[in-house]
Amino acid sequence: MKLAIISDTHFGDPMGTLVSYDSSNKPIVGPKYNVFREAAGKGNRYLILLGDIFDFSITSYSKAYEAGKVFFEQVKRDQIADEMIYIPGNHDADFWHTVEYEVNVIRRINQGKNPRDFRFSVPGFIDVRSNSQTSNDLILPDVTEHDGTGPKYCGLFLDRITEDPSYFNFAYPNVYMVTDNESVLITHGQYFEQYWAFASEWVTKLAPEALEIGDQMDLKEMVGINFPLSQLAGSGIGQAGPFTKVVRKVQRDIKDGQLADITGYLGRLDKEIDKQTQYPWYKQYLEWVTDVISCWARKKILSGLKTVESTRFDEEFIHKKEVQKRVKDFYKASQIEIHRLNQSYPLNIPQPDTIIFGHTHQPISWGDKNAPKAVVNDQSISLYNTGGWLDRMEDGEIVFCGAEVFKYDSNKGFSSVRIE
User: Fold this and answer.
1) CB atoms < 10 A from the CB of 420, how many?
2) Are 393 and 344 in contact (CB under 8 A)?
3) DSSP letter assigned to residue 11
4) Same domain, yes or no, for 130 and 143?
5) Is residue 23 located within the same domain as residue 127?
6) Position 208 in a domain
7) Which residues, 6+ apart, have CB-to-CB distance to 176 below 8 Å?
8) Do 124 and 138 meet the contact criterion of CB atoms below 8 Å apart?
9) What is residue 104's DSSP assignment?
């Protein structure tokens, strides 16, 4: 059995390299596609799409989908994989939300049944051990929406992105893969960053008794609690019409350290506060207080923006103390999920000793002796990264960020290919 793993293609982003745009702004196969095809190889059982494949946070569904269609049509023609395994990230989290709505709401209503609760976490499992009883196929243990004749969680909305339908299996946020030599947790990695784990971290601090989740949060609870923020930033902003352009520009300005326009936006704060507040005769004194507070807030915001460091392209991200803690929390939540799977199904999934993730666009090769580690309950876990497929501006020049195509071959084991 063979498979390949990539992430962070960001279809819809004009800086993409697997899909780019011609002079008429029409999406075409990008300059890095051929090296991707060579690295991934043909005849894979699966191509695992490890999140941020489409970028709905910065552009409309139609533009992102149009770009993705070019890529997947070419993948189909090149016979790179029989099926896709899609594990959404933060920029395409709405694809997982869409699966949840289609399976648990729309299909149920069409069948004359009541909608059911979202599942939030639906793990995938691939067992390629020599004594495997699963024929090396993807297993989605909690999924029953299939007729038993084909891939599970296929036949959904994305299959028709290609003229000749493709097979897109969906899992979220993890796929567990077990070989004779290792147990691998495959995830996008957005829950390692503060924003995407913010709700679960703070709600458990402020209102633990109201959550009734016990001593340790499991993966389903973590995903569910962070659902609102994921939907807001993962797609809500990208589909906000004219506001999308404003947010996109603000994001770009912050990353480039250009804060002149943002200073102007914040400078209007005093006037708007004055308009919204109606004070009696002593208004002048209260207005002075609100002006002082507003001025202080502006300075704090601008000071904070000047020190913002983007997670993307940050080589030190995964080594930071607070990130290491989130990795451990996520791993422990995944351990609970694995324990429950092993109790309910005869899967015998060992605790993972390796994590393959993306999100940061900083590739870390398989087997790299300097790869970062996370230690959980005295177990050392190696962390490898898929990198990304975007160009970026560096000192006024366009530079490719660097990707890693991970591969598995039953005859050779795991390996990876660096794309520069």
Assistant:
1) 10
2) no
3) B
4) yes
5) yes
6) no
7) 123, 124, 125, 126, 183, 184, 185, 186, 338, 349, 352
8) yes
9) I
pLDDT at 398 over 50: yes
CB proximity list for 53: less than 8 A, separation 6 or greater? 7, 8, 9, 10, 11, 68, 86, 88, 89, 92
| Phi-psi domain of 241 (left: phi exceeds 0; alpha: psi -120 through 50; beta: other) | left
How many angstroms from the chain centroid is the CA of residue 338?
A: 21
Same domain, 265 and 324: no
Sign for the CA dihedral angle at 419, 375, 53, 108 comes to: positive
pLDDT tens readout for residues 201-256: 877 666 666 666 666 788 998 999 888 888 777 766 677 777 766 766 666 655 55
pLDDT of residue 308: 46
Can you tell me the mean pLDDT for 89-105? 92
Mean local confidence (pLDDT), 324-330 = 94
Q: Is residue 23 part of a domain?
A: yes
Same domain, 195 and 295: no
Report yes or no on 396 lying in a domain: yes
Question: Are residues 256 and 315 both part of a single domain?
Answer: no
The domain of 287 spans: 242-306
Give the integer Cα–Cα distance in Å for 238 and 59.
5
* Burial of residue 289, with CB atoms counted within 10 A of its CB: 0-12 exposed, 13-18 middle, 19 or more buried: exposed
Q: What's 66's domain CATH number?
A: 3.60.21
Peptide bond into 173 cis (omega under 30): yes
Q: Which residue has 């648990």 as its token pair? A: 104
Q: Inform me whether the pLDDT recorded for 276 exceeds 80.
A: no
Same domain, 283 and 409: no
Which one of 281, 306, 331 terminates a domain? 306
Stretch (H or E) spanning 81: strand 81-86
Report the C-alpha gap between 329 and 219 in whole angstroms: 10
Please report where in the chains the tokens 């709505």 appear, as a residue.
Answer: 101
Q: Where are the alpha helices (DSSP H) in 226-357?
A: 227-231, 242-256, 260-267, 269-276, 283-306, 321-344
Q: For the CA atoms of 240, 245, 250, 255, what is the dihedral angle to 10 degrees?
A: 110
Each residue's pLDDT tens digit, 44-69 = 999 999 999 999 887 888 999 999 99
Given 252, 272, 306, which residue is the final one in a domain? 306
* Owner of token pair 């209503």: 109
Residue 136 and residue 12 share a domain: yes
Question: Does 408 reside within a domain?
Answer: yes
Beta-sheet strands, E only, within 331-394: 354-357, 373-376, 379-385, 391-394
